């Protein structure tokens, strides 16, 4: 099946329930992304700053770019002019840098707090208690050019669907509590970013509002090493 055919299938399944489909385009060519764009896709997710910057310059301006990988503070400035949503925010320091760069670009940048829900040591994210501590921090109230719009989580890489279900469910329960405690009057706080190709159906059942699907849309990835010329500064 073509990229367009794959995309049509996922958009029909995912978006019919009001869930946003993020086409994960990391390591995919500009041509492949353009094929998905021409088939109606507008939201694309990238893991690496340099790769996203390179692609953004070559593709239509109405694409909504999401940074879904781990983001280092010293690289925020490269995506601040155009990034729509940063998924993996895991510290107050990073929020402060995003705010600083958003001010320079006269923008408000939407962010998701990444919550550690997996039974693995390889994932990034804040513990439940750390999220609460961050949201209570006086310094957070000073950041006028960032907007926290929800939470993001990555489940354990396992075939045990019960475990995945529990992890997604716990995040949804936590989200509901955070909404009531900190964002009761904030309509923008509404997003839960969970679910990838292997577990997106479970994620949607457990309250996800956006899922990240890549190779199932684009096919096998072509690995390319992007230069780190701008990110070394």
Please give a quick description of this structure.
The chain is of the alpha/beta class and 233 residues long. The chain has helices at 3-15, 30-38, 49-58, 76-79, 92-104, 128-136, 138-141, 161-182, 200-205, 215-218, and strands at residues 20-24, 43-46, 64-67, 85-89, 109-115, 146-153, 191-193, 210-213.
Oligomer: single chain
Unreliable stretches: none
Estimate percent helicity. 40-55%
Number of DSSP helices? 10
Number of strands: 8
The largest beta-sheet arranges its strands as 7-6-5-4-3-2-1-8
Question: What coarse outline follows from CA principal-axis ratios?
Answer: globular
Description:
The structure is a single chain. This protein is α/β, with parallel strands linked by helices and 233 residues long. Helix content is 40%, strand content 17%. The chain has helices at 3-15, 30-38, 49-58, 76-79, 92-104, 128-136, 138-141, 161-182, 200-205, 215-218, and strands at residues 20-24, 43-46, 64-67, 85-89, 109-115, 146-153, 191-193, 210-213. The radius of gyration is 17 Å and the shape is globular.
Topology:
Layout: H1 3-15, E1 20-24, H2 30-38, E2 43-46, H3 49-58, E3 64-67, H4 76-79, E4 85-89, H5 92-104, E5 109-115, H6 128-136, H7 138-141, E6 146-153, H8 161-182, E7 191-193, H9 200-205, E8 210-213, H10 215-218
Parallel strand pairs: 1-2, 1-8, 2-3, 3-4, 4-5, 5-6, 6-7
